[in-house]
Design brief:
With about 300 residues, the protein is α/β, with parallel strands linked by helices. Helix content is about 40%, strand content about 20%. It has one domain: 4-Layer Sandwich (Metallo-beta-lactamase, Chain A). A seven-stranded mixed beta sheet has the order 1-2-3-4-5-6-7. It has a five-stranded mixed beta sheet with strand order 8-9-10-11-12, with no helix packed on it. A two-stranded antiparallel ribbon has the order 13-14. Strand 1 and strand 2 form a beta hairpin. The N and C termini lie far apart (about 55 Å).
Length: about 300
């Protein structure tokens, strides 16, 4: 466990996913205990995973906050709650998406969505198999003790909703520190994809979240992956420029014939991707294509997307 600054501690867990680690944070509370932010993946043996971490603390965990519903952040919520007895807090919108994604999971709808956007049958079958394996590691809490809204406070940390990476992604801010989840990362860009039963314009949402980070201008953002972001406003501008470039490349990939999001993903990303990473690439391509449609730069057709005016 690393102490990043007084009252803020970080523990890192390995992941068997496209990214190989996730950070969880312990924030010293006003009572002298700790608020845990994010919970890694769920596990069959939560005691073995979490007991060494909990025993290294000098006070109990008083609350657990989930920033967003992705498996590496919400997955261990039920595990840690059972070990500590601490209440679980989650964003209201994020929990609703959690219910849709994990509580109302429908493999047939899932398969139809990716097929509609051009994925080959073998790739879709691989995605279903991976999803079946992953669900066992998502130990989400069906009835959180508290649902959080923008402007709420958790022991002096103010809640903001910064959408894009996930529809209802929340962050915590106090003074000039942002506990950022995956809203902003150093060295890599957060994945922004369009998924079934989600908000229709995640890239538009994310660009607004980047604007909000610039406005907040925290001194540091402690993120879910990679190193702390020491100039969050500057990093937000870099990521905004990255997406402007990605939009231009997506528009250039539309060559006159209707193209699916999967086909556009082959032009925007490496052709040598795992099944999981191809899903991310297709979802991100779809988010960029939908933003192009909203900006009047592309048009949807029955078989995909074409450049506007062609």
């Amino acid at each position: 466990m690393d102490e990043l600054e007084p009252g803020i501690f970080r523990v890192t867990f390995a992941l068997p996913l496209g990214i190989d680690h996730v950070h969880c944070y312990f924030l010293r509370s006003s009572n002298g205990g700790f608020i845990l932010v994010d919970t890694s993946l769920g596990t069959r043996d939560a005691e073995a995973k979490w007991r060494p971490v909990l025993d290294a603390l000098d006070a109990p965990v008083e609350a657990i906050v989930v920033t967003h519903m992705h498996p590496d952040h919400v997955g261990g919520a039920r595990d840690v709650a059972a070990l500590t007895g601490a209440p679980v807090f989650q964003g209201r919108e994020d929990h609703a998406q959690c219910v849709r994604a994990w509580g109302e999971r429908n493999p047939e709808v899932f398969a139809a969505y990716w097929t509609e956007h051009g994925m080959p049958p073998a790739t879709v079958e691989g995605l279903i198999a991976e999803s079946d394996r992953l669900i066992s590691a998502v130990h989400w809490v069906e009835e959180p003790d508290r649902l959080l809204d923008p402007g709420d406070e958790v022991d002096g940390w103010r809640v903001e909703v910064l959408r894009g990476h996930a529809d209802g992604h929340i962050v915590l801010q106090r003074d000039d520190v942002l506990i950022a989840g995956d809203t902003i990362l150093a060295g890599i860009t957060p994945a922004v994809g369009l998924y079934p039963r989600s908000r229709p314009d995640p890239l538009g949402d994310y660009l607004e979240s980047l604007r909000r980070i610039e406005e907040l201008a925290p001194r540091v953002a402690y993120s879910g992956h990679e190193t702390p972001v020491t100039d969050p406003a500057g990093r937000a501008r870099e990521i905004r420029a990255h997406h402007a470039d990605r939009l231009a490349h997506a528009e250039a990939a539309l060559n006159g014939e209707p193209l699916s999001a999967y086909e556009v993903s082959l032009a925007l990303f490496s052709s040598d991707l795992s099944t999981t990473l191809r899903r991310f690439a297709t979802a991100e391509s779809l988010a960029h294509l939908e933003r192009l449609v909203r900006e009047g730069r592309a048009v949807r057709t029955g078989r995909g997307y074409v450049k506007a005016g062609m």
